[in-house]
User: Fold this.
Amino acid sequence: MANAHPSLAVAQEIGQVGRNFLREVGGVFWFIVNTFEETLERIRRGRVPFRAASFFRHTERAGVDSVPLVGLVSFFLGLTMALLTGYQLQRFGTERLIPGLVAIAFTRELGPLITGIMLAARIGAAFTAELGTMQVSEEVEAIESMGIGPLRFLVAPRMLALFLLMPCLSTVSNIAAIFASSLICKAYFSIAFPYFLDLVKDSLLIRDIIPGILKSFLFGLLISAIACYRGLTVKGGAAGVGTSTTSSVVTAVTTVIGFDTLYNIVYTVFFPT
Amino acid sequence: MVELRNVDMQFEEKKVLDGFSLKVEPQERLVIMGQSGSGKSTVLRLILGILRPAAGSIFFKRFEITRLQRRKLQRIRQHMGMVYQYSALLSSRNVRDNVALPLEELTDKSRSEIDKIVDEKLDLVGMKDTKDLLPEELSGGMRKRIALARALVLEPELILLDEPSAGLDPVIASVIDELIISLSEKSKVTSITVTHEMDTAFRIGTRMAMLYQGKIIEEAEPEKFKQSKNPVVAQFLSGSTEGPILEGSLDAITKK
Assistant:
């Protein structure tokens, strides 16, 4: 093998990377399927799959506690976007397009995307670290040894919390950004609040809002699945938890951006605007 | 109660169990001894169905663990209780919630019924006053006792104990050992303990087994086990540096 042709070595390396990638994709896919299966099986037996308190604890952590961060970042982005696009549009005398531009950009694309990236970093990392620590301290195995399904007990409440909370946080992001742009419009371009709202209402359509909401659900599912999967597959003690947490954030952020692109392509093909 | 037949188990290149066979009768307290890393804890994980062997069969009563699907396996596990070497208590829950967890998740009992059982089990292990404490507020011995209470809460037929007295001072280790004996006598529970602590092994065990190089090389009642002619067992019991155990290890190192 030492004398292998360099192109062969490169091909082998690419093959190895491709194989690892497909293994990971398959792993996350079956992880989601098994979580659903375990949860539904429990429901079929007439029992609640997890405690409401556990679910609400995660919704509070993932949702309520993320509102300041999501709101603040989106507010600043809304300010910047309105300011920079405003100066360009002003040169053509079309600054009244700013409200619609910011509203459509955020509801359709930036709101869910930025929220997804922030939650992948904030909550994804927390889920991976928490479950990873439980994994290395044998807590997950102890749960399993009692006959309790760890997927429905540990993963399902986290997954459902993020799945349901992502659209809410995207909405917070949209509102913060639109509000910020309204301040810029008032301060720099003399667009009063009532007129600003009329312009937003005129330009924003339901078909701009729906894709953003659907996308948010998908991002919530992906971020939580990747974070929990990485947490429950931690190996190598404390160092392993650290490595998995970093890997979880990187994977989740990349996946969110990748799926966003894919989603936009598919959506544009089926619903051309 | 439990039977392992010709079980092979390996982790990547390392073969841990090689044609391992063992039978455990109801109500006995079997102690499996062996060197660190010899595969003792692996045996317990195989019985629980957490690990799957490369070959061989494992039976718990009439169920073949190795062939059961996840759903059925989860139900079978409710008849077993496991005490981990480092207790494995859920760090985010207090003692009461740790012990109550199997009852809350797997039974239809009301909160007051659960509280009554939790009190009873905590009383049994002498830890009734720690109900509101978090695991991090407990000492190693206290955690072991809580883990034992949690393992007993579903009234299992089989208890698996992984190094129950490792890392504890001799007095607390004796307390834990006495507790295991009294529980097994009172509740007629079968137990399998893995340990390399001699005192614990001979105090708890009604039968001893020695695991060496992936197989059980000696099985006997404590007194007969002590007088074993097997050089590995003799060296292990005496703690001598002269004998086949270190020679085997040195051979393996030299071969590498």
